[in-house]
Input
Amino acid sequence: MTPDTLKIVDHPLVQHKLTIMREKETSTAVFRQLLREISQLLAYEITTDLPMTTKTIDTPLQPMEAPTLDGKKLALISILRAGNGLLDGVLELIPSARVGFVGLYRDEETLEPVQYYFKVPEGLSDRVTIAVDPMLATGNSSVAAIDLLKQAGATNIRFLCLLAAPEGVRRMAEAHPDVPVVTAALDERLNEKGYIVPGLGDAGDRMFGTK
Ligand code: URA
Output
């Protein structure tokens, strides 16, 4: 059973693009472009319940009360480094968003995530905060990043990823049941090296052309 905090975006365009991204022969350039496109479709889903208000505007014909986003600008938080691939597309859709970065690495001895960079917009407590990281695998770094965002004052956090493993979804739901997760697909499992299977490989390597 999957937690009810999980939303899988089962849209034909999302699923078609994801299939091309999974294929091992897909080039870096195409992978990056599809990630940008898919991130916007996922961002559409994760923002469907943003708070709204109205304001009085003048159309060329007459005044009207028109809907507009309420509250402070959103905060988008990229979990380095692969989060940057999702961030670019989401920022095109929400250009006024404030942007932060969380850098974590895994301590080889304790296997625990250790923070090496943390810079986030001020006033997180009043902003809808969307953390982005393409792969929700073990969930260790995502959970740690959200711990840090909560310590910095964020109270309304959502998590946007491209692919999720059941292990990561469970871990996130246990640690942060208040954080909705939006993804394009929930894959079968993690392998012994912590890769999502069938997955798409290392998302950072595929988007940046590294190995
Ligand atoms: N991170 C990746 O980039 N890929 C995986 O499959 C798991 C974690």
About this structure: The first strand starts at residue 6 and ends at 8. The first helix runs from residue 12 to 22. Residues 82, 135, 137, 194-196, 199, 202-204 surround uracil (CB under 6 Å).
